[in-house]
Design a protein that fits this description.
Keywords: Methyltransferase, Transferase
CATH topology of the largest domain: Rossmann fold
Radius of gyration: 23 Å
Pfam families: PrmA
Protein name: Class I SAM-dependent methyltransferase
Number of helices: 12
GO molecular function: methyltransferase activity
Helix content: 25-40%
Distance between the termini: 41 Å
Strand content: 15-25%
Largest sheet: 7 strands, mixed
Shape: globular
Number of domains: 2
InterPro entries: DNA_methylase_N6_adenine_CS, N5-glutamine_MTase, SAM-dependent_MTases_sf
Number of strands: 15
Length: about 375
């Protein structure tokens, strides 16, 4: 999963190099300078904006504070137009989305310019550095040589490690799901609640497919609701490992089978469930693939293949937010067209308004779309 290349820099007049790691898929920076506790935030921000990376040799906690200072500068609102100048034209929802994504990408590149050295055992050889071995091992696997990675990425690894240990409380399940680094965490519970409330179709107690299982949360929920056998599929190795671990923790090994597949397993089922990425846009990093799906490829693939894997009187449950429609990235007509082209019909739809914090955040760049967003469980059947 990790992009590995070689980072080159000059230190104390000597040419040096080390393995480069980036879960975000970023190439190693071409320009690298040495930075330490004497480096000011303004200097660091200027260098980062210019594309010059800083390999840190000072105190770890000071580096963490410097990263926070860089983030504050990156997030500083732009100045309003001066009096007399024509006001800026308000962008369309689609334009606002692309500007937001562009700003996110630029911010990520800027903050990734603060680099840390790592020993081959994943420890950071800096004063006051925490024990990073377990968090790095979970994301990177074994290392056979020292390497360099960004501090921002390390903090993400540490945060994911804590979530993996603690788990995410799933009220509908009455238990916790433990997400792995790089696997979409079920922190938005509205789609889970829809699956918990929807009436199971006739025959679903015998078998169900969970397509793109991720953490395995929906497969576990179906098993808890009495489905005797659930086949959960995914292509991502981390998702397969994560789902298998969660199913084992929940004691559902006898009911749930986690298997690698491109969307569907072999055969047909009375119930087929899928929660594809909701936004048809290019991900900025591999980690974003659970949210962003270029040209709605997974959604189209599910709708095109569902009829071949559904029992004649079975149901396909498509869990989908309409955020893309409010952003002008997909139309309702297009979605209905793909359903019809797949030889399917709509039996009904359950809806819920999202309750995540961004839906009520009026300062968010996409607030208008988020505040109108609805998540639906589409009940589909063969025409």
């Amino acid at each position: 999963m990790t992009t590995q290349a070689t980072l080159h820099w000059t230190e104390n007049g000597e040419e040096r190099s080390a393995d480069w790691r980036s879960e975000a898929g970023m190439p190693p920076p071409k320009r690298v300078v040495i930075a330490d506790d004497t480096t000011s935030a303004d200097t660091a921000y200027r260098l980062a904006c210019e594309g010059t990376a800083m390999l840190w040799r000072g105190d770890f906690q000071n580096a963490r504070q410097l990263l926070q200072a860089l983030a504050r500068r990156a997030d500083k609102p732009k100045k309003a137009p001066k009096a007399g100048k024509a006001p800026l034209v308000k962008p369309t929802p689609t334009e606002a989305f692309h500007l937001h994504r562009q700003a996110q990408s630029q911010r990520a590149r800027t903050l990734a310019m603060l680099l840390l050295p790592f020993d081959a055992d994943h420890l950071v050889p800096l004063r006051r550095a925490p024990d990073t071995r377990e968090a790095c091992l979970e994301a990177y696997g074994e290392a056979d040589a020292p390497y360099v990675a960004s501090m921002r990425e390390l903090l993400g690894l540490i945060g994911a490690h804590e979530w993996r240990k603690k788990g995410v409380e799933i009220p509908a399940l009455g238990d916790r799901i433990h997400p792995y680094y790089g696997v979409f965490s079920p922190v938005r519970g509205e789609y889970i609640d829809l699956v918990a409330k929807a009436q199971l179709p006739a025959g679903a107690a015998s078998l169900a497919f969970d397509i793109g299982t991720g953490t395995g949360v929906l497969a576990a929920l179906l098993a808890q609701r009495g489905v005797k056998r659930v086949i959960a599929t995914d292509q991502d190795p981390r998702a397969l490992a994560c789902a298998s671990d969660n199913i084992r923790r929940l004691g559902m090994d006898d009911q749930v089978e986690v298997t690698e597949a491109d969307l569907f397993p072999a055969g047909r089922a009375p119930l087929v469930v899928c929660n594809p990425p909701w936004v048809p846009a290019r991900p900025n990093s591999p980690i974003e693939r659970a949210v962003y799906d270029p040209d709605s490829q997974m959604l189209k693939g599910f709708l095109a293949g569902l009829a071949e894997h559904l029992e004649p009187k079975g149901e396909g449950w498509l869990l989908l937010s309409d955020l893309a429609e409010h952003l002008g990235l997909r139309t309702r007509e297009a979605l209905l067209g793909w359903i019809e082209e797949g030889g399917l019909k709509v039996l009904g739809r359950l809806e819920v308004k999202p309750h995540h914090p961004k839906a009520a955040d009026q300062t968010d760049a996409l607030h208008a779309a988020r505040s109108a967003e609805v998540t639906s469980l589409w009940r589909l059947a063969i025409r």
